[in-house]
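SAMPLE LOG
Freezer: B-3
Tube label: C17
Construct: single chain, 74 aa
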Amino acid sequence: MQPDRLIRMANQIATFFATQPGNAGAEGVAGHLNAYWDPRMRRAFLDHVAAGGTGLDPLVLAAAPLVRRPAEAA
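STRUCTURE (predicted):
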């Protein structure tokens, strides 16, 4: 999956959680990514974050440490 598409999708998720009451935005973003993004998407996302995370919303960057890295494919 292209990084631009992952960035756009992650930022849209952050926009939703930023509008929710309370301070659980980062947890909400990470929970969504962990629950609904397939392992390839999460791996590509975390690789992009490790490379600097250009273009990602600050809420997405705050959520990144909470996103589970999938096991590498055999």
